Amino acid sequence: MLVTLTDVSKGFLDETILEKINMSINEGDKIGLMGVNGAGKTTLLNIIAGVLPCDEGTVSKKSNLEIGYLQQNEALDDGNTLEEEIKSALERTYTVRRLMAEISAKMASADVGSDEYKRLENEYAALDNEYTALDGYTADTRINRVLTGLGFRDFDLKMKTSALSGGEKMRFGMAKILLRNPELLILDEPTNHLDFSMLAWLEDYIKSYKGAVLTVSHDRYFLDSIVSSIYEIEQKHIYKYKGGYSAFIKQKEERLRVLEKEYDKQQQELTAMRDYVSRNLARSSSSNSVGSRVKALEKMEIMQKPNPRPKDIHFKFDYDIEPHKTVLTVKDMGVHVGDRVTGKQLYDNISLEVLCGDKIAIVGKNGVGKSSFLKAIMKRISCSGTVRFGGNVKVAYFDQELRDLDLNDTVIEAVHKQFPTKTDFEIRSALGRLLIEDEAVFKRVRELSGANRAKVQFCIIMFKRANVLILDEPTNHLDYIAKEALDEALKQFTGTLITVSHDRYFLNNVPTKIIEMFPDGLEIYNGKYDYYLEHRKTVQPQVTEKQDSEQKTAYMASKLNKADERKRRAKINALSKEIEALEGEIEELKTLSATEEIVTDYVKLGEVLEEIKQKEAALEEKEIEWLELSE
Question: Are the beta carbons of 207 and 87 closer than 8 angstroms?
């Protein structure tokens, strides 16, 4: 047992956030923590991490438990270099390494067999045991592995952390915590600012992580991938479910269904028993049976009425006119951002044809220009080439930054501006289906949460009755309940969808075609996200009309790529064998260094230690090379 919460309650001012929370975290657990926005997830993490005290109840922790807590606004020291931040994360490892080097140098000048030599020898052995426990011998390899996985392989470690962007600071903060290898790893929204390759790396890392992991995440695919149980905070209480996100959704629905059924059944029994008692109480002939039923009523444990289910949120996208077969034609598009001289060419010669009924998701590395592509289609930024919509096309656009909303408008004004002929009743009814109700419709847009601002934008889109939806990160601001509802509505939508999204669960549910964007073109995959993952390394770029010479060039390039891939795999296999051999040699040398013959001969001991050092350096080089080839 690492952490146990017993009847923990917490409130702020006059509002109770958490009530009678019971929860346990054991060695090796991989737990997801869920709840709608504002449910108290971060508050609970802070209590477990010791950042906040609870008002009632107890929090028991294993003695000397080390907790690594990645908060959403993870702070770095802007005055430090990246290297200094890493050393602060592995402070004890670097201290022990330095002390071992100092003692080794002293042993080299001490008389073998002397009391001083024996004292130094004992100190060195104790430090070596600690260094091994700290995984010090693999520290440099782990540093390279984590930094590479989180996108810092090519960064200069001498640079100041102040030079990092907000997203990079978040990722580097995560790298620091992962390098510490805490027994309990607490992650608050760890998938923010990670691209697909980083997400896949993090999932693999957490799956093999020896410690326990507790994470809050809105990334449904991530939760399905890494956790074995989920706790959900619902109306101040907490409930546990086995499995990942998909299992949680099914189990929660079944739990509520059974609970409601059992409550209704008991209420019927209670009503029947009370009715029998009231009808027969005065009749002496039935006094025994009445008495037994009264006793049964007194002993019965009365179930509490289940919490009312939260209202369903309803997205619905309808349209009135069918568009022509070809909805959108993009030919030789180029997008340049920034100043003509100092700006950046995102891509050039991008061509795409979208047909009626297509549901397309555009993916690609961060910064490749996916959102700019949508903006160029919508003529919100300039581009070269041709962008042409087909006949009878009516487009609605969702901007992930929600810039189309005037922050000073009230909610009802924001919608009314777009649709002046709609009555207040029609607008309020539509907003109500998105759970923006009562006085909330008179709030200023600036006062709304990100989720509710997104819902206002979706209300406007639904009123447009567009047959083509262009959505930039549509699930970004929504909690999981709203995401599920949006997924279903877009699956039911019979029009055309073009979307950019990092939400892999959404990508596995809604689109039927994935398009990966590169600076010099597109690759099209006729399937959902898992299909794209499976085929992305083997599917060749789509070939359009080319001259014979270009086809031959592409064919030869393909052959070379396959040959290179075979060489890469062969090199990885060879490196794996070399790494295994080096690890065995190092282990043998360490065993040799502990023998009486070597320990009592400082010259031989120095030679053995030097050989260990050289082989560890060679091992590190091989492991780095293996990691780079495996990317």
Answer: no
